[in-house]
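debug: dumping io for the single-chain case to check the tokenizer round-trip. Nothing else runs in this session.
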Amino acid sequence: MKRNIVIAAVTAAALIGGGTATALATTGDDDPGTTRQSDVRDRDDDARGAADDRADDDADDRDDSRGHDRDDRDDDRDDDARASAAKVTAAEAVAAALKEAPGTAVSAELDEEDGDDDGDDRERAVWEVDVLAGDGTWHSVRIDPGTGKVLGSETDDEDDTDEVRAALKGTSVDAAEAAKAAAGRGTVTSVELDEDGYRGDGVAAWEVETTPSGKGEQDWRVDLKSGKVTADRSHHSDSDDADDSGSDDD
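debug: decoded output
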């Protein structure tokens, strides 16, 4: 009799314990339906987030493109403004610089510099002319584009002296003459010796930039011996027009 009571008690305890464990196990499992719905929501959120990121990137790209276009237009307007304000031509600036520092003019550029030492912080246009002297010394001469007055000169250190001399050896067209040859295409804002040639072909030439009114910057090449002017396609400029085969000037 006692043994039957004990067995009954053990069986009851086992049933109670098993039921409790089963209940706990069942309670601890996630509802499959709930899990699947959560996964779908997460995937939707990820997709929307990725789409938003792509939209933001596209908007940023459009803003950057518009910004570059505005910068280009601003640069063109600045070039036009400097060119229209300059009373001294590139050829005249070269001549003035050579009086200050005799030698060979290798480049001349109409650029901007900070204000003077009298407290005027405004930027102003200035011709910067690089001259290679006979003794191998380089000089950078600044010329006022309104008056032709020498604003200052300083000595520069350059490492391409031999290349420049080799490129100019036996040539007959100097920087001033190159500027005059290209002047019919617009106001010359820069003339510079390209000793390496078009895409490194070794055929040296003068590179000249002009600013026709309302057309932006255009690029030209002037032959060192003949003075022939041709469009410079290496800069992918807008100057590839019907006249881009070039013609002899002056």
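debug: round-trip ok. The CA atoms of residues 20 and 26 lie 10 Å apart.
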